[in-house]
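Action item from last week, closing it out:
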Amino acid sequence: MNTKDYLTWEQIQTWSKELSAQIKNDCPDLTKATLVAVSRGGLIPAQLLSYNLDIRDIRLIKLISYDANNHRGETKNITTDNVEDGRYVYILDDLADSGETVRYLREMYPQARQCTLITKAGCKHKPDFTSVEYPDAAWLVFPWDE
């Protein structure tokens, strides 16, 4: 069994600033940027990036891909927000593990930029921007999961 790696708020804030810098370098005019949080993992990163970049346009994508026992199933989109595709749309999640969510969202929003705080080394579909890579065997526990 893998040991749990408990992430700290300090790490999350550092990675959020790193991700913010990548977005700032990508987007010449942040007033045109839209942040889209993938519920639920992307909610806190989106809020942190919103403050770091002073972007107030935050949308929400609601996906269901895990059952009550944390087993991956078919991804279903139950979004009610109006999320448009575009060059300065940044879709945020906490983690790209298998990359299935990245793949799914890239098909729906091909122009948008996929962003995660963390990407696992063996992730099949990598986000456009990420702050840190972790080994596949790492069992990550986010501060908001405790």
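Closing note: Residues 37 and 140 are 20 Å apart (CA to CA).
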